[in-house]
Amino acid sequence: MELTWAKTLVLTGGVLLVPVFAIVTSFVFWPGVLLKAFNWYNRRLQGMVVRYCHSGTYRFCYTTRGTPGGATPSLLLLHGFAASKDMWLPVVMYLPRNLHVVCLDMPGHEGTSRTGAEDYSIQGQARRVHQFVRSVGLDKSPFHLVGTSMGGNVAGVYAGLYPADVCSLTLVCPAGLDYPTDSSFIALLKELDLETPNAPSKPIPLIPTSMQELEAMLKLCCYKPPKIPRQFLWGLLANRIPNNDFYREVFLAIVGEKSRYLLQEHLNLITAPLQVIWGKNDRILDVSGATVIQKALPHCQVDLLDNCGHTIALERPRKFANLVLDFHNKEKNKNLN
Q1: How many domains in the chain?
Q2: Active site includes 119?
Q3: Can you give the CATH number for the domain in which 197 is found?
Q4: Is 326 assigned a catalytic role?
Q5: 282 belongs to the catalytic site
Q6: Where exactly are the transmembrane stretches of this chain (predicted)?
Q7: Are the C-beta atoms of 121 and 235 separated by less than 8 Å?
Q8: Which among 26, 84, 149, 183 is annotated as catalytic?
Q9: What is the pLDDT of residues 315-328, one digit of tens each?
Q10: 265 in a structural domain
């Protein structure tokens, strides 16, 4: 056996060693590269294709699968703060291959253009998403819009501002409400008092700068933090740290006075059938926010998940996909009848 391995290595001229060496080197020295390679592989596995479109000088980056048109509405997914289009990959795994799915990098995130604070407020982001929708032709027929956390705030405001675009709406643990009960995270923010003059220098729990802060963030976001290999955590941190100044700018824009309760201020404008999904153990945005939406829109469907925190797409991807699909199909069938 040892001789066979030796002969193989000699006959291949060490070719087999090159990818192995590259993988090992990336794992040890460039964990951020390893994580990006993992996402690339996962996209390929799910059949998600990365695409770009331009509106003037502004560039949008997104992934897509399936063909638009037909009786089934497209699904447009908006990620949360400091995430990217790839956060939806665990969910896409459980969606039908023939469903047209689009996952957008939100303004300034990952491959989408970075401009300035005017595009990072919730209303600014909604305007940019509308620009994207028109650029790729998603506005040719109404689509099902899904948004989580910051993306939930944007999705709700979008549905209020551009009702003709949206045939159904799913808000997942959305920001933008005056929550009856403060979450652990909101309590921390109040202690930080980010509106004081020295706010830009204060640490924000969702913008980690060390492994200890990253692990604390995961504990805050998840009911039970997933068991992620240490080297992948280092990769996540390595990819985030160069963007931390940008994340801080976005964060201050979305918690500012103009954006803080913008979803709540637009609830009365939402006409599309609405689904609300929330983890009962959300420590970022308290589940009591669901009652705020239900009070304003009593006909909405509310799905609360036991033993689940803020990152539902990561913690319960199959359940999440099934809930969205059931609602998606129910509303599609109503429209066909």
Answers
A1: 1
A2: no
A3: 3.40.50.1820
A4: no
A5: yes
A6: 12-35
A7: no
A8: 149
A9: 999 999 999 999 99
A10: yes
